[in-house]
Every structure is written in structure tokens, then in C-alpha cells.
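Inverse folding, one chain.
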């Protein structure tokens, strides 16, 4: 189903028909940026009474595509509601391009019993539309104060700047308004910029919006985590944990921080007091439950950092977590510092070579993430050294060494007896 596209010159007419008010702004071409919002007149700054501040743009609530709007639409559209039900309300907008094809196939399979959606998704070119929809959402989505993540037509024409001149908000009626963000206001002909998110990492900015904020102070990186090799409980841990399977690394003011509720679950073993049980629920079905020290903690899988605090081996658990994270950081650092290859042969290299601006952005991201990983590696090495000096860790490792020596001695004695 081919989607019709309108030129940007049609925006004023579209805005008029849909009650979008471009009161003090218009869309113009910005040197080096493409299109953007420009002030049509001098816009006064924020007054003492914020409620009297005139809106630069006003977008009716009915045009905002948010989770609330999706739910409301599903109530009146039978076909759309059926699609949400078979899809399990799972959105694909957070998926990477590499899994979009698989997600589209899964959605098509689930919707095969729905005549309307089966015919639509079976049309030629729909896979390309699916990828385009994901890209459109990522590049246009903003986080509103009340409605949360949403697409707001008109407002999405504003470019990002760390020194933004306007901010977006919601009225009591649910309309979205663009307001001046400072007392100085905006001069006529000046570009009106907003912030796409001051806490977004370089990777998120590049992946979602196609550029990296060069002056951003945010130095964060998320690494994927998987079950530890040869862990017999690994699959069960990943099944029962519902949070993100990542570890968040950040450098702030020269200090290193990491956060990962999952990691503390991954490093625990059955001999530590971790256990899984399959029990029968009230409806007669079977469900997996997680126990820690014989206490059911199924609903607290993300709280193991605090659950282990009173355990005698708490410092040992922390040492395990640091050691696992250090290895994960090291492998990631090796991967991103390796030379990028865009083609296996000289003939194919030219065809696979990305645009210059894409290469520069990728290299910039790689340099930023390498700085974070290098800082993380140094900090984790220091943290591991500190934990190895802890009296409880020294005692525990000493006892483990004695046990291993005793087992080796007994094994050697048994071998001598067998030889005799």
C-alpha cells in the first residue's frame, strides 16, 4: 500500500486544516541542518507569570501520537484492537534494524488469522514500510511531561541544540505547546531550537537522530549482558528477570559508575543460596519461582544488590560482579578498537563504503565509547584490587586454596595406592 507524501510547502495548508497554530514560527531551510523552525517575529522571553507566556506553536491533543492515543484508537477501531491483541502490545520501536525483519515476520504470522491485517501485511513493499516506520518513530519521538514518548507533528520540525531557546510542554487540555525557555526570548529570523534530551548518550543520539551532540557532557554506555558460560541456571535467570539485560556505564567528573541489577543475579550460584522452583498457581498452571536463602524473591529479581548485603559472602559476590564486568568491558574495548572493514574484497569495498558523514559519525562514536571503556577498565581494576585486600575476601580465598590443596593431595595419595 503506497503511502502518499506531501511536499514541505504543503505544511501551512495542512496545519490550517488540522488546527495547528504556528503563531510565531515558520519552517525554513537552515544552513547545514536542512529544515528547522525560525521565529517570524521577536518573541518575548519568559514572564514572571509563566501562565501568561504566549505559545510559539500549539498542537491539538488529537494529533499527538502517544501510548494514550494508541489505546484510545484501539477502542474504536476493531481491526487495530485485534492487531494489538495478537501482538501482545509489544512495540518494535526499540528494536535494532537487524531484528526488524524477524519482528515483521512474527507480527505477520500472529496476524495471519485476521483478514484485514493479513492482506495488508502481505502486500509487496510492506517490509520497507515497517523499517521506515521504525526510523520515523526513532527520529521524531520526544518525551512529553505527561503523555510520555510521543510524536508531535509540527514540533518535530525543531532542531536540537544544547543551548536551546524553547521548551515543549502540555496544557491542562492535553495540547502540546512550544514556549520560550529563557527571559531573553527569540529574535525575529533566529532559529528556534529545543533539547532532544539532555541525558541521552552519544549512541542513543546517533541511533535515534543521526548526529552526536559535540558539547554534551553525558558520557554513558550500555553493554549487553548474557548468562555466564556453563551456568546451569543461566536460562532460568534470564527467563525470570524482566528488566533490561544491560549494564550501564558512566563517567561523571572523572568518576566511574556502573549499574546493573541483572549482573548481581547472574553471578550467584545454587551453593550461594539461589534456587528455582516450579509451582502450581491458583488456576492450575505451572510457574517458575525464584528463591534466595529459602525466601521467595520472584518479584524482586532486580534487587539482588541489596538482598546480598547481609550475606557473609557479600564482598565475594561483589568481587565476582566486578571480575565479570571487567572481562565484558575488555572484550568490548577490543572489539571497537579493531580496524573497521567495509568490504571483504577491493571490488566489494566501494559498494559497501558508507557515506563520509556516516563514517565520521561512527568513528566519533567509537572514540567516545573507547574513552568510557578505558576509564571503566582502569576503575574496575582498582576496584578489584581493593576487594582482594578485604579481610573477608582474603580469608575466603585462603580457605578455598587450602581445600583445593587438600583435594589435590588426596587425589595424589589415591593414585599412589592404586599404583601399589
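Residues assigned per position:
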Amino acid at each position: 500500500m503506497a503511502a502518499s507524501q506531501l511536499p514541505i510547502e504543503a505544511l501551512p495548508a495542512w496545519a490550517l486544516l488540522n488546527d495547528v497554530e504556528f503563531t510565531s514560527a515558520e519552517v525554513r531551510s537552515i544552513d547545514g541542518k536542512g529544515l528547522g523552525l525560525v521565529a517570524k517575529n521577536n518573541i518575548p522571553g519568559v514572564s514572571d507569570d509563566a501562565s501568561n507566556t504566549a505559545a510559539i506553536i500549539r498542537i491539538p491533543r488529537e494529533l499527538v501520537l502517544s501510548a494514550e492515543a494508541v489505546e484510545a484508537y484501539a477502542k474504536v477501531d476493531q481491526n487495530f484492537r485485534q492487531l494489538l491483541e495478537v501482538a501482545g502490545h509489544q512495540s518494535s520501536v526499540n528494536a535494532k534494524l537487524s531484528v526488524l525483519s524477524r519482528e515483521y515476520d512474527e507480527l505477520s504470522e500472529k496476524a495471519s488469522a485476521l483478514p484485514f491485517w493479513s492482506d495488508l501485511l502481505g502486500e509487496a513493499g510492506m517490509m520497507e514500510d515497517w523499517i521506515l516506520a521504525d526510523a520515523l518513530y526513532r527520529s521524531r519521538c520526544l518525551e512529553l511531561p505527561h503523555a510520555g514518548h510521543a510524536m508531535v507533528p509540527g514540533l518535530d520540525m525543531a532542531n536540537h541544540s544544547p543551548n536551546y531557546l524553547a521548551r515543549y510542554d502540555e496544557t491542562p487540555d492535553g495540547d502540546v505547546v512550544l514556549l520560550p525557555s529563557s527571559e531573553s526570548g527569540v529574535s525575529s529570523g533566529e532559529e528556534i531550537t529545543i533539547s532532544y534530551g539532555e541525558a541521552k548518550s552519544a549512541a542513543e543520539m546517533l541511533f535515534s537522530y543521526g548526529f552526536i551532540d559535540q558539547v554534551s557532557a553525558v558520557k554513558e554506555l550500555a553493554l549487553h549482558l548474557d548468562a555466564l558460560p556453563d551456568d546451569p541456571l543461566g536460562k532460568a535467570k534470564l527467563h525470570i528477570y524482566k528488566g533490561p539485560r544491560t549494564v550501564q556505564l558512566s563517567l561523571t567528573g572523572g568518576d566511574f559508575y556502573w549499574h546493573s541489577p541483572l549482573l548481581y543475579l547472574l553471578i550467584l550460584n545454587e551453593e550461594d543460596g539461589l534456587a528455582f522452583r516450579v509451582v502450581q498457581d491458583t488456576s492450575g498452571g505451572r510457574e517458575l519461582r525464584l528463591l534466595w536463602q529459602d525466601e521467595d524473591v520472584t518479584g524482586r529479581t532486580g534487587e539482588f544488590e541489596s538482598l546480598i548485603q547481609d550475606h557473609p559472602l557479600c564482598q565475594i559476590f561483589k568481587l565476582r560482579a566486578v571480575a565479570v564486568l571487567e572481562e565484558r568491558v575488555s572484550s568490548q574495548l577490543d572489539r571497537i578498537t579493531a580496524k573497521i572493514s567495509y568490504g571483504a574484497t577491493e571490488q566489494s569495498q566501494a559498494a559497501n563504503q558508507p557515506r563520509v558523514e556516516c563514517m565520521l559519525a561512527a568513528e566519533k562514536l567509537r572514540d567516545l565509547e573507547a574513552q568510557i571503556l578505558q576509564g571503566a577498565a582502569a576503575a574496575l581494576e582498582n576496584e578489584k584490587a581493593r576487594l582482594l585486600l578485604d579481610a573477608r575476601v582474603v580469608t575466603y580465598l585462603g580457605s578455598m586454596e587450602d581445600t583445593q590443596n587438600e583435594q589435590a593431595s588426596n587425589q595424589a595419595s589415591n593414585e599412589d595406592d592404586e599404583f601399589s
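The longest strand covers residues 246-252. The first helix runs from residue 11 to 17.
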